[in-house]
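Milestone M4 deliverable, item 7.
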Amino acid sequence: MEIHAVLLHDERPWGGYTIVDAGEGFQVKRIEVKPGSRLSYQKHARRAEHWFVVRGLARVTLDGREFDLQPGEAVDIPVGAAHRVENPGAENMVFIEIQRGDYLGEDDIERLQDDYGRIPGQQSSDGSATSGA
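Output delivered:
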């Protein structure tokens, strides 16, 4: 029996995530999104994702199409698909993300739009230009 004890937590401007399990070719995260916040509109070149909503309403944008997911509903994000999730609710929204692919590093992100100024030369939502850090 193989036991994984990962539990790495990272805070982000939109909320945070905890890696709850990882192994060759997969990673599982518990992601919490603050009310009124959203993640970058982004793509991944080397991984697909499966999102399963467990609390709150998730507003998903997938290749330009927007739709809502309730607790118990899920969506698959194919490799290379533009995607984002946001929390239109008044309480934290939580979903489980399962990543599958040959590389799962945080640097496999092509940000297309970001509210927090993490794209070089793009203005953040407060109007200031950023270096992308």
